[in-house]
Sequence to fold (163 residues):
Amino acid sequence: MRKTLKLIFIAALFAVCFILPANAEETIGINDLINNAETYDKQTVVVEGEAIGEVLERGDYAWVNINDGTNAIGIWMTETEAKTIETFGDYKHKGDTLKITGVFSRDCTEHGGDVDIHCTSIEIIKNGNIVKDKISNTEAIIAFVLLCAAVVLAYIYFKVLKN
Fold:
């Protein structure tokens, strides 16, 4: 009898620890937010994306745009939160990857009816870096051939056709 009770206890403990689903925050794609705006309106959501552009300061608050690869959205946050972001994505940089928790609005009355997220917490998942573009050999050869063609055409134009 005791052996059976121990076995049941261990099985129940196993079920509680490993079978029950975890209550982790699930991130939502920005495109999903926009396409299902009525469903997520005024709901707390979690999104991840690269900080792009620059901070647009508005008094004690700021706008930061993030892009998750499917779309981009404006995040309304405090100026203090915005200052924690070190790198913004542009042609020469990969921006910090942010995890934003906030309230989604499909038509924010505070901001003229725009789609936005009012940040309640921000976490930097990955720091940004400088992007170094390398020119491939093929690109260099094509550029050289086009340069030579341009020089030949310029010579023909100025020496042959102008005389």
About this structure: The longest helix spans residues 137-161.
